[in-house]
Write a structure and sequence with these properties.
Layout: H1 11-14, H2 18-28, H3 31-50, H4 59-91, H5 93-98, H6 109-118, H7 124-131, H8 138-157, H9 162-184, H10 191-218, H11 228-265
C-alpha cells in the first residue's frame, strides 16, 4: 500500500480531477503574465484615482476577505502538512523533498491545485492597500507577482519540492491572514506577534533555499525530478525574498525600536 493511500481523504479531495487541472495549467499557465500585467495597471490607476480622494475604510469587507484567506490557508496547511508529516515519517527527508506524488495523491492533489490557483485572487490584497491609501512597499507587489508566476509555471511541470514549498506557504499564510483579520476587526494585537510572522517568513525563505540546494544535489536521482530552469528561478526568488524580508524586519522592528529609544532619551 502506498503511503498516500493510508491517509484519509475526503470525498471532494479524492474525486478531484488532477489530470484535468494539470492539462489546464499546461495550456494556460502563461495567463499568469497577463494577470501580473493587469495587476500592475490596476495598482497604478488605483493610486492615481485615490490621490486626491479620502481613503476608504472598508473594514467589514477587509475582515471578510482576510478571514476567508485565513480559513483557506489553515485548512490547506493542515491537509498538506499531514501529507508531508507522513511522508517524512515513512520515507525520510530525501523522499519528502524529491516527492512529486503531492500533486496527485488523494489527500493533497486538490490543495496543490487550490494553492496554485489562489495566487491570482490573493492579488486582491493590494486593492485594499490602494483604496485605504496605505503604504505600498516594493516587497509587497514584487512578492505577489513572482509567487504567482513561479507557482503557475511550476504546477504544470510538477517538479520535486512542491510539497514543501506549498506547505510552508500555507502555514505562514495561516498565521499572517489570521493576524490581518484580527487587525481589520480592530483587535489590539501585540507587536511581537507581527515580528513573529516576519520571522516565520524569513525562516520560510531560508528553508526554501535549503530545499532548492538539496534538489540541485539530488536532481540526477531518477526519483528526484526537477529542471535547472526551475531550480534557478526558485533560487533567485527565495534569495531575493530573504534579503527583502530581512531588510523589512530590520527597518520595521530593529531600527524603529532604536530610533524610539533615542527619542525618549532626548
Amino acid at each position: 500500500m502506498k503511503m498516500n493511500e493510508s491517509l484519509h481523504a475526503f470525498d471532494f479531495e479524492r474525486q478531484f480531477n488532477d489530470r484535468a487541472a494539470l492539462e489546464w495549467f499546461k495550456q494556460n499557465w502563461g495567463a499568469a503574465f497577463v494577470l501580473s500585467g493587469v495587476y500592475v495597471v490596476v495598482i497604478f490607476l488605483g493610486r492615481v484615482f485615490m490621490k486626491d480622494r479620502q481613503k476608504l475604510e472598508l473594514r467589514k469587507p477587509l475582515v471578510l476577505w482576510s478571514l476567508s484567506l485565513a480559513i483557506f490557508s489553515i485548512t490547506g496547511a493542515m491537509r498538506s502538512g499531514w501529507y508531508m508529516f507522513n511522508m517524512v515519517q515513512s520515507r525520510g527527508l530525501q523522499e519528502s523533498v524529491c516527492d512529486t506524488e503531492f500533486f496527485s495523491a488523494p489527500v493533497s492533489k486538490f490543495w496543490a491545485f487550490a494553492f496554485t490557483l489562489s495566487k491570482a485572487p490573493e492579488l486582491g490584497d493590494t486593492v485594499f492597500i490602494v483604496l485605504r491609501k496605505q503604504r505600498l512597499i516594493f516587497l509587497h507587489w514584487y512578492h505577489h507577482i513572482t509567487v504567482l508566476l513561479y507557482s503557475w509555471y511550476t504546477y504544470k511541470d510538477r517538479v520535486a519540492g512542491g510539497g514543501w514549498f506549498m506547505t510552508m506557504n500555507y502555514t505562514v499564510h495561516a498565521f499572517m491572514y489570521s493576524y490581518y483579520t484580527a487587525k481589520a476587526a480592530g483587535a489590539r494585537v501585540p507587536r511581537p506577534f507581527a515580528m513573529l510572522i516576519t520571522l516565520m517568513q524569513i525562516t520560510q525563505m531560508i528553508m526554501g533555499l535549503s530545499f532548492v540546494g538539496l534538489l540541485y544535489l539530488w536532481k540526477h536521482d531518477i526519483h528526484c525530478f526537477s529542471t535547472m530552469h526551475n531550480i534557478i528561478f526558485a533560487s533567485v526568488m527565495y534569495l531575493s525574498y530573504l534579503l527583502l524580508f530581512s531588510v523589512f524586519f530590520y527597518q520595521s522592528y530593529l531600527k524603529r525600536s532604536g530610533d524610539e529609544k533615542r527619542v525618549k532619551r532626548e
